[in-house]
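Before any further analysis, backbone shapes were mapped to integers, which produced the following:

***
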Amino acid sequence: MTHSYRCVDVFGSGPLTGNPVAVVHDADDLTDDQMAAFARWTNLSETTFLLRPTHAGADYRLRIFTPGEELPFAGHPTLGSAHAWLEAGGAPATPGVLVQECGAGLVRVHAGERLALEAPPLLRSGPVSEEDRARIARALGIDTDEIVDAEWIDNGPGWVGVLLADAAAVSALRPDWSAFDGLDIGVAGLHEPALHEPGRDVLLEVRAFCPGLGITEDPVTGSLQAGLAQWLTSTGRLPTSYVAAQGAALQRRGRVHVDVVDGQVRVGGETCTTIEGRVDLRA
């Protein structure tokens, strides 16, 4: 009942600056309860389990657990698990493109300068009602008129996206955790002017609040970044290539690289194994 195990730092801009994901290899023999128990034990935002695919077009199958529930899709677990699968000797059927089977279907991951996932279709999109906008404002501890815009950008975890006036407004948020009432809220604001960094400037500041998933604030969040990109690039508020920052409030320095290629949003970032060994999951 021991399994190979890796902890992978995803979306970092240096050692221990991103979001860790726990990855268990060859997990076909594990029960749902064992997976959920290990996810609670790690207490990371997500823990994943690599399994044999059931779909002919997939290279591997992935199950994703938060401390509170299983998710059909999540971004940093997708990239971290792809990294772990490749590092353990996995070879995709199509060179340079991994196909992950998960609860949301098949997700393609491109292996180039850095791993980048293709954003899956949104399960829920469109404008937010005035009632929900008021709920969001209460949860974030702000006035309703401070919300520039809001859209449903749910690709599995249930995200609603909120645009504030600027990056400083995002950084200043002090949420009221008692007021979330099941909401998973992603907040974004533009850096004006952009933050100058080597390689590419940082245009967007992002924070992710998801207490309903057992996580108050997530350090760096690929699923949210994918949904925000689909929304904000389609409305012209962001260019088709940019870098977003996330995690400063948690003393992280996450960097998410977004590119729209032939109309398809790709969300990429650095991945690095920080822990490797074996884990005993006996009941």
Q: What stands out?
A: The first strand starts at residue 2 and ends at 10. The mean pLDDT is 96. Residues 27 and 155 are 25 Å apart (CA to CA). The chain is about 20% helix and 40% strand.
